[in-house]
Amino acid sequence: MLTTIAQVGQHVGQEVRIGCWLYNKRSSGKIQFLQLRDGSGFIQGVVVKAEVGEDVWEKASQLTQESSLYITGTVRADDRAPSGYELTVTGVEIIQIAQDYPISLKEHGVDFLMDHRHLWLRSPRQRAVMAVRSEVIRAMYEFFQENGFYKVDPPILTPTSAEGTTNLFHTKYFDEDAYLSQSGQLYMEAAAMALGRVYSFGPTFRAEKSKTRRHLIEFWMIEPEMAFVDHEENLRIQEAFVSHVVQSVLKNCQRELKTLERDTSKLENVVGTFPRITYDDAIKLLQEKGSDIKWGDDFGAPDETLIAEHYDKPVFITHYPTEIKAFYMKPHPDRPEVVLCADLIAPEGYGEIIGGSQRIDDPELLEKRFAEHELSEEAYRWYLDLRKYGTVPHSGFGLGLERTIAWICGLDHVRETIPFPRMLYRLYP
Predict the structure, then answer these.
(1) pLDDT digits (tens, 9 = 90+) for 249-267
(2) Which of 92, 200, 358, 419 gives 59 a disulfide partner, CB atoms 3.0 to 4.6 angstroms apart?
(3) pLDDT at 164 over 80
(4) Which residues is 69 bridged to in the sheet?
(5) In order of start, what are the domains of the chain with their CATH numbers?
């Protein structure tokens, strides 16, 4: 019966059979050291010529990088091994000998690796990132499941923009215009009025011609919406959510974080309440540091990094000017020039990972916003209905999955956080 590398610790002293690929190989004449991988992890298989038949030795000798095989061997504990175990090989069954594998173990340029992304995923580092991504998603689902949220799936094809912007991918929906979704938020608000607390998780699309290390054209968002939740409670839920995700990764992905050489002490602080700074105070802070930013300007990446440097946890920047935020955000009751919103900025220069706000619940104010933003009342009539028929205070937020993973893993660029990144001028593979 087959087992996996991740499960070999349950079979110490026993003979196991594993389906795997050869990652690397070295030989000292009478011993061959096979670095094997099977998706669940990596392990070294040791082939001793004096202990195996000529057939097994010859088959091991034929193996090339990324050849596929079944390996049989006895599991033994070894504290020096990265996995804690080694395999004393007793049998080799070749499935295929790979010829001229293009990604050798030397250094390669980014463009080359991106052209071979389908193969680059096999490397230890990329496998570790994908394992962390999987754990982040699992932990997100766990948090919402344990806190009374329902998962709802909004449409990807939409007739309008969620935020009234022009960075949309246009397509034809038979004889109508349609767009790829840039957010499921408006639909989630409708779902929250039916189910109370909901969340969606799916791909979103932004046609921004940006090439920064923080941007992807196609990325994944988790978007909760909550009825009867105000701005303050919204922030508390975000704190608990992000803390749960980070601590879950620390608990369940120690080996992957070690592969990525991540300084986990920076993540261990991500618990409890997060610091907050108002937009007003953030502007003053930046001006004190020599910035020429003015009240009413939006923050760029360097501004967010400067602010984040003052804290060892993610920090909320709250109460942005109404003029630079989306039409649906609720104004502060005592200061209508700012809205009840917050962006959560990750430490270490990773920028905004969450944007959230309390939503407008007054139908008259929402109609006024439609006019100010030149939005079609006909297209948004259904959204206004949510305020006409049983309006309640409600709030929500959106977390960008790839930026969050980049921060947790300590990566330089978001392109490594998604299996097949879609970036400006890159649609292959």
Answers:
(1) 999 999 999 999 999 999 9
(2) 92
(3) no
(4) 20, 94
(5) 2-96 (2.40.50.140), 117-417 (3.30.930.10)
